[in-house]
Every structure is written in structure tokens, then in C-alpha cells.
Amino acid sequence: MGKSTDNHLKEDKHIFVKPGTEINLKDYDTDYTAGFKNKEDAEEKLQADIASLTELQDKLYSSCSHSLLIVFQAMDAAGKDSTIKHVMSGVNPQGCDVTSFKLPNSVELSHDYLWRIHKNAPLKGKIEIFNRSHYEEVLVTRVHPEILLKQNIPGIDSADKVDEEFWKRRYKNICEFEKMLFDSGTIILKFFLHVSKKEQKKRFLARIDKPQKNWKFSLADLKERALWNEYRKAYEKALTNTSKEYAPWYIIPADNKWFMRAAVGDIIVGTLSELNLKYPKITEAEREELAKAKASLLGEPD
Q1: pTM score, two decimals?
Q2: Which domain does 19 fall in, by range?
Q3: 233-242: per-residue pLDDT in tens?
Q4: Which of 5, 84, 110, 142 has its CA 20 to 30 A from that of 256?
Q5: Which residues neighbour 104 within 8 Å (Cβ) at sequence distance 6 or greater?
Q6: What is the pLDDT of residue 4?
Q7: Do 188 and 69 form a contact (C-beta atoms < 8 A)?
Q8: How many structural domains is the chain composed of?
Q9: How far apart (Å, rounded) are the C-alpha atoms in residues 187 and 246?
Q10: What pLDDT was estimated at residue 216?
Q11: How does 89-124 read in b/e, with b if 16+ C-beta sit within 10 Å?
């Protein structure tokens, strides 16, 4: 196995967005594999981490002291769905939820933009996965500022009123929101699955050519692809302004799905391991009750 199998990737400079770093996505290789030799090497590591995650989730759920929020953001076809499917395959569904944020409905638009996010934050002991998230509010809205007009924001009655100060306020709002969650016991991990434009084209063509994947493709995907550079700039701004020690961003190379999944799994397991989670200890009185229950069960006739 490659040397990466012995070390967590949480601090890998090619992946971890150190708070305060000015991000230029050209500096992050979409084909990086952190020393893994091949797909088999990464798969072996992933399977080991899936087994570890099963036990860690059980301790997280039973101790009920923390919760885990995992945020996935990416360009289309980067592999969010498949990463969630593979990495979380060993997780007990009872302790994990996945929320996919689509366009806000009329009720959600009547509230502040973080309202629908907050009400889906994880309960203590649970894992919550956001497949797209509150970051859409500084990504797609930055590329398409006209969307903001539906939110009836005071002072924003036209797209040209959305200036850099507006985005700075949003980054500040998001950071404060995540800090509040963190202070309440929620561990936050944010993954940007970084796919190249060349690889996205390849995956779009596969969706068109394979009937079983046709449903995953829309002409709207091509319209957004045409805005590739605008989206890159929006991601660079968001990553630069919102990666914090309490809510870090990881730029996960996504051209090789096998590495992408292994990296995400490794970081999740590494983060939960640092919590030193333990099963709840019972009191002496509870232990005595268990002894009585055991004696009662053993005393029953067969």
C-alpha cells in the first residue's frame, strides 16, 4: 500500500484549506492522489475507514455529546452522490440523514436564507450530510445575482445593487452561523470536490451515451458549464473567506473517483477519531439493575 494509507490527509497542503489562505484553484491539482499507488491501494484504505466509521458512528450516536455536519459542494458531475454512497456505506441509517438543497420554495424564501439550513442541522449524536448547502447562497447566486431578487432583501431591488460588501456580509453570516453550531457541539467538515473541465466533459458524455444515466443529464448543465470561469471565481472567494479552524474546507481532487472517496473517508475518520468518543458509562445503581435483570432472565423456565 502507499504511504498515504498510514497518515490522515487532514493536514495535506494539497487538500486542506488553511484558514487565511488566498485560494487559486489552479494551484490545486484535480488529478492528485497523495501517494496512493493505484485504485486498489485506495480501495483498501477506504474499506478500512468504512469499518472504522461504523464503530465511530456507533459511539457518536450512543454518547450523544457531539454531532457531525458534512458539507459537499462541487460542479456538476464531480461525484457528490457516489462519494456519499460509497463512503457512508457502513453507517447505520438510523444515525445519519442526507439533505439535498434545491431551489428554495415560497415558505423558505419568506425567511432568512439560513433558516432552512439551520432547521436541518444535525441532532446530537447524529451525522447530517448536506448535498449542496448554504454555500449555494454565495456560489450560484454570485454567478446569477438576479436570483437574489426573489429573497426580497432590503436595498437589493436590482442585480447591480449586489456589490462586494454584500458578499462580505454573507461570508461573515455563514462563518458566524457555523461557529454557533460548532460551539454547540457540531463538528463541521466541508468538502469541495474539485473536478477538471475536461473530466466533467467526459462524464457528461457518459451520461448521454448510457441510457441508465440519461436522467442525470440536463441541457441546463451545459448552460452552467459555459460559466465555468465564473463558478471557479465564486468558489475561490468562498473557500478563501469561509475556511476556519472550526469549519475547515478540503479541496478534494475529483478526477479519480477512487482517490476522492478514499480522501473523504480518511478525513472523516481522522476527525471523529480525534474526539476520543466512548460509549456511555453506567452508574453503580444501573449496574445493579442490570444484574437483577440478568438474574431474572436466567431464572425463567426454558
Answers
A1: 0.94
A2: 3-298
A3: 999 999 999 9
A4: 142
A5: 113, 116
A6: 39
A7: yes
A8: 1
A9: 8
A10: 87
A11: ebbeeebbebbebeebeeebeeeebeebbeeebbee
Q: Return the C-alpha cell found at 297.
A: 432472565
Alpha carbon distances (Å) from 300 to 120, 255, 291, 294, 297:
46, 61, 15, 10, 5
CATH number of the domain enclosing 48: 3.40.50.300
**Any residues with CB less than 8 A from the CB of 156 and at least 6 apart, and which?**
148, 149, 162, 166
The enclosing H or E element of 141 equals helix 140-143
Residues (pLDDT < 50) of the chain are 1-7
At 1 the pLDDT is 36
Sheet of 96-100: strand order equals: 16-17, 249-253, 186-194, 67-74, 127-131, 96-100
**C-alpha distances out from residue 250 to 18, 34, 127, 254, Å:** 9, 14, 18, 12
pLDDT of residue 38: 92
d(CA 300, CA 180): 52
pLDDT value for 302? 82
197-222 b/e with 16+ CB inside 10 Å = b? Answer: eebbeebbeebeeeeeeeebbeeeee
pLDDT at res. 7: 47
> At a CB cut-off of 8 Å and minimum separation 6, what does 284 contact?
none
Which pLDDT belongs to residue 231?
A: 98
Q: Which of these, 33, 125, 50, 56, lies nearest to 85 by C-alpha position? A: 50
Question: Are 39 and 258 within 8 A, CB to CB?
Answer: yes
